[in-house]
Amino acid sequence: MWLSVHFCHVRELTPEVAQACDLLVDGGIPLGCQTVLLKGVNDSEQALKNLFHGLLKLRIRPYYLYQCDPVVGTTHLRTSIQTGLDLISKLRGHTTGYAVPTYVIDAPGGGGKVPIQPETLITYENGQGLLQNWEGKTFTYIDPIE
C-alpha cells in the first residue's frame, strides 16, 4: 500500500507534518506526493526544488506534478503547459532524479493522467536513436545487433 499526500509549497512541511509522516513511514507506509503547479505559489525552479528536496527529507517521494485543471474559479492559478515543461527541464540535470516528479495533465473528460515531457528522443531509425539531454546536447544510441 502507498499513501498519496498533497503539498504545493515547502512552507506546508511543518514540524507537525514531519512528525505525522515519520509515524506513517516508520509504520511501513511509503508516501508519494502529488503537487499541483500553481501560478504565483510554486511556479519557479527554486520553489519546486525547495519543495521536492523538503519532501525527500521527510521520506516522501515527489511523484506527480500536475498541470492545474481548468476548474471554474482557478484561472488566476493556472500556468501554461510550456511553463511546466520549462520547470521540469530546469530541474532535470540540476538536482537528483529522485526530486523530479513526472509532469502530468489529468486529461479532461476522464482521459487519465498523461505524462508530459520535453522532447528527448529526437529521431529513431534503423536501430539508432538520437537523444537530447537536459542541456540540449545530443547523443547517439545504437540498439544491439540481433
Proportion in β-strands: 25-35%
Number of strands: 8
Sheet with most strands: strand arrangement: 1-2-3-4-5
Measured on Cα atoms, how large is the radius of gyration? Answer: 18 Å
User: What is the SS-derived class?
Assistant: alpha/beta
What does this protein structure show overall?
The protein has about 150 residues and is of the alpha/beta class. Helices cover about 25% and strands about 30% of the residues. The strands form 2 sheets. A 5-stranded mixed beta sheet has the order 1-2-3-4-5. It starts with a strand and ends with a strand. The mean pLDDT is about 95.
Summarize the structure.
The chain has helices spanning 15-26, 45-57, 81-91, and strands spanning 3-5, 31-37, 60-67, 102-107, 112-115, 121-125, 128-132, 138-142. With 146 residues, it is an alpha/beta fold.
Set out the fold topology.
Blueprint (H helix, E strand, L loop, with lengths): L2 E3 L9 H12 L4 E7 L7 H13 L2 E8 L13 H11 L10 E6 L4 E4 L5 E5 L2 E5 L5 E5 L4
Parallel strand pairs: 1-2, 2-3, 3-4
Antiparallel strand pairs: 4-5, 6-7, 7-8
Question: Which short descriptors sum up this protein?
Answer:
3 helices; alpha/beta; 29% strand
